[in-house]
Design brief:
This protein is mainly alpha-helical. It is built from 3 helices and no strands. The termini are far apart.
Length: about 100
């Protein structure tokens, strides 16, 4: 009787092995679900970035406002006959560009 009990217990363990540790086992499924969640998170971030870039591209194609804004802030360019005024906070020092000779 003892031999039958041991053989049934061993058989039960052998049957459980693929369920827990096999190729499609619960542990592997949990790992794959974590990978899928990480991929969804990254995709959401990339979709937000793409939407922002798409908006910027449409703005650059349709109007001159975005081009002018980039020229002003990134290249410190000014229009002809325009006076450049920059207000600095306490302790900040930065030389203003020469209004007579704007940088291209």
């Amino acid at each position: 009787m003892r031999l039958i009990t041991l053989s049934l217990a061993l058989l039960l363990v052998l049957i459980q092995y693929p369920l827990w540790l096999g190729k499609g086992g619960w542990l592997r499924v949990g790992e794959l679900e974590e990978q899928v969640a990480a991929a969804h998170k990254k995709n959401d971030e990339l979709e937000r970035r793409n939407a922002k870039l798409d908006s910027e591209v449409r703005d650059l194609k349709d109007g001159t406002g975005a081009v002018e804004e980039r020229a002003r802030y990134e290249l410190s360019m000014i229009k002809q006959n325009e006076i450049y005024v920059q207000i600095l906070g306490k302790g900040q020092t930065r030389p203003a560009p020469d209004a007579a000779n704007p940088t291209p």
